[in-house]
Amino acid sequence: MDTPSKKTTRRGEGELIDRRALNRATLARQLLLERADMSAIEAIEHLAGMQSQAPQAPYVGLWTRLGEFGTQELSELVATRRAVRAPLMRATLHLVSAEDCLAFRPVVQPVLERGFASAPFDVTGVDIAALLDSGRELIEHRPRTRAELGPLLAERWPGHDPVSLAQAITYLMPTVQVPPRGIWGAGGQARWTTMESWLGRDLDVDPAPERLVNRYLKAFGPATVRDIQVWSGLTRLADVVDGLRDQLVTFRDESGDELFDLPDAPRPDPATPAPPRFLPEYDNLLLSHADRTRFITGGERVPLQPGLGGRYGMLLVDGVFRGTWRITRQHDTAVLHVEPFERDAIASEREAIDFEGEQLLGFAVADATVRDIRFDTT
């Protein structure tokens, strides 16, 4: 990833903003200081999309952010194609609105191309344009899994790796994963089709990284150029941000680096209370900055749990990553296991954590007749 130019990464300029102030500013934009009175689609757009590698993780991510949210609301958005799951920022699957999907993908196309080139796939000797044309025809005829797509492509390009051929389609062509993947409680393999076919509209013909930068700052700022690059996967954004300079305000952090922000974005008093929050796995809050010390103070690594999601995640206490959680289920009994890094760091918030935990169990395993919370030592 490119290092921002010196003219954009200035040191010692702008008002100082410390880590706690950065923490509260980003928590406010992430709807984690208080639950928001928004619909699910409004929240998804406000957040500039939600990580969706684990397809059911966004359900917990919306529950922890919204005053009123039920699983059916998001399931209906996915089923009716108002929200879609697609490879976008960082070449990872994100849940976004249909409108954002069509606008974001052309901007991050270089990220997907670079991701494919750096992966252990081999399409040497294959005419990529012809491959994409064949792939488009196959997945627009009906959505297909990569396992189904690869052998069909290999019939035309014998001797080439079917996995690499299929991966080329889902990396290099604007594609989405279709339901039932992404529907709460539903299984199903990951099947792919094109964005245009699924949404019935063309992609944005005027890719604008400036709009993506503004959307990022609205959801994650204040931030450095490197932060924006880490979130998006794009490189060489220093000049883009510099072109927006007269529309932004600047700060400097405790290391002296320059941060950018929207003038009217919320920057609450650092003393603002931050209630405990249960985040799902892969939540963008903890993955979208080059410098994560506004949320991670002990150098802990963010766990990326494989699976469908909705049963594992991270615990914030006073706005800081203080532990992990998981839900186990045996027959009609569901147990929320809270695993703090340090018991003393969460002791004063135990009652509030218990309350949030009870609400989480009621949301994630509503059909369990017995629910319990256990604090496990690590």
List the keywords.
13 strands, disordered N terminus, 378 residues, alpha+beta, 37% helix, three-stranded mixed sheet, five-stranded mixed sheet, globular
Give unreliable regions as ranges: 1-9
What does the average pLDDT come to? Answer: 94
Record field, number of beta strands: 13
Number of helices: 14
Q: What series of H and E elements makes up the topology?
A: EHHEHHEEHHHHEEHHHHEEEEEEHHE
Using the alpha-carbon principal axes, give the shape.
globular
The helix-and-strand class reads alpha+beta
Q: Which value, in Å, is the CA radius of gyration?
A: 21 Å
Largest sheet: 5 strands, mixed
Distance between the termini: 35 Å
Q: Please estimate the helix content.
A: 25-40%
* Strand-residue proportion: 15-25%
Strand order of the largest sheet: 9-10-11-12-13
Chain-wise SSE layout:
Blueprint: E1 15-16, H1 19-29, H2 40-46, E2 50-51, H3 57-63, H4 71-79, E3 83-87, E4 93-97, H5 98-118, H6 128-141, H7 146-156, H8 162-172, E5 175-178, E6 191-194, H9 195-199, H10 209-220, H11 225-232, H12 238-243, E7 249-252, E8 258-261, E9 277-280, E10 312-317, E11 320-330, E12 333-340, H13 343-346, H14 350-364, E13 370-375
Parallel strand pairs: 1-7, 12-13
Antiparallel strand pairs: 2-4, 3-4, 5-6, 7-8, 9-10, 10-11, 11-12
